[in-house]
Specification:
This is Histidine kinase. The protein is an alpha+beta fold and 343 residues long. It is built from ten helices and seven strands. The longest helix is centred in the middle third of the chain and has 52 residues.
Length: 343
């Protein structure tokens, strides 16, 4: 911020010196500096609301819309500046251009406006470009790490499948639950191996994976663990990043349900919220006491990794809220228009 202020002040000083020198040469004498200070202080004050409009309020607008809006704000800027500047100069007896020379005030202010906002837009564009390059580099790093993990997982997948089959065949036919658990574990591994090669998967596949994981955990917790999975009709084939629901479900079991003797309920909901796909994972566990929700996002692998991943991909991470009457709700949204539906 300090650098930007210095650049703006330098620009104003250079423009002020140039205008002062030009006016002195034009009229043949050097005048006081009061009118120059008044000139550029007024321009600075009129620039502030436009900076807020263009770089805060309309920051995400396409450049052609910004250009059209400048065609409206530029003459308005010039008109307001001339009215105020001339009024103050006449009231305090300060120098200003008069008669046919007044057209130079219009021309110089138009030039000032164009150069100033041209520099502003160019600077902000370069900052955005640099930010996108950094984000792209970070995502490339994450992708490289994922690819390495995938390569490690693929070192000998057939060996692992054979191990599962060997274990399954060694289990007596009467131990039906044990056989089912091995099959579910095999399915979980198979899905993880599959999505390690894909950037996007259908919502229904992610939910099926989460359900298999919950079924496996239910073998351990029994009636202490209950779950519900609901998805709004028509959203089953929307594409989302893989392995993004299960870590949150696992977190609910580990920190919410497991510590309670009576257990609890985990509810996964997928709904459409405007142009977003909205996910909510709520549990009726022990909830959070003595900690801020923001602190939780920096602890544990499931929450922190998923939160960081969502921020990198969509600019917004997880939201944590207390569940009523007890427990925690974790939610996040993914823009539907960034994930094409499967054909």
């Amino acid at each position: 911020m300090k650098k930007e202020i210095i650049l703006i002040l330098t620009f104003y000083i250079v423009m002020g010196i140039l205008q002062y020198a030009t006016s002195a040469i034009d009229i043949g004498q050097w005048l006081g500096l009061s009118w120059v200070f008044l000139n550029y202080i007024l321009k600075a004050l009129l620039t502030i609301p436009l900076l807020w409009l263009y770089f805060k309020k309309l920051n995400e607008y396409p450049i052609w819309k910004i250009g059209l809006l400048h065609l409206f704000t530029m003459p308005l800027f010039i008109y307001i500046w001339i009215v105020i500047y001339y009024t103050l100069c006449d009231s305090f007896g300060l120098f200003r251009l008069r008669g046919s020379r007044e057209v130079w005030d219009v021309y110089l202010t138009l030039l000032f406006y164009s150069i100033q906002f041209g520099f502003f837009h160019l600077y902000m564009y370069s900052k955005k470009l640099k930010k996108q390059e950094l984000l792209s580099a970070e995502l490339s790093k994450l992708n490289a790490q994922s690819e390495l993990s995938a390569l490690k997982a693929q070192l000998n997948p057939h060996f692992l499948y054979n191990v599962f089959n060997t274990i399954n065949s060694a289990i007596p036919a009467t131990a039906k639950n044990a056989r089912n658990m091995v099959n579910e574990l095999s399915d979980l591994f198979r899905y993880q191996l599959k999505v390690s090669r894909e950037d996007m998967v259908a919502v229904k596949e992610e939910l099926e994976f989460a359900q298999k994981y919950l079924d496996l955990e239910k073998e351990r917790f029994g009636e202490r663990l209950q779950y519900e999975i609901e998805i709004e009709k028509g959203l089953e084939d929307v594409l989302i990043p893989p392995m993004i629901i299960q870590p949150l479900v696992e977190n609910s079991i580990k920190h919410g349900i497991s510590p309670q003797i009576k257990g609890g309920l985990i509810k996964v909901e997928v709904t459409r919220l405007s142009e977003n796909l909205h996910f909510t994972i709520c549990d009726t566990g022990k909830g959070i006491t003595g900690q801020k929700h923001s602190q939780l996002l920096n602890k544990g692998v499931g929450l922190s990794n998923t939160n960081e991943r969502l921020i990198k991909l969509y600019g917004k991470g997880l939201e944590l809220n207390n569940n009523e009457p007890s427990g925690l709700c974790v939610s996040f949204s993914i823009p539907i228009n960034t994930a094409l539906k499967q054909q």
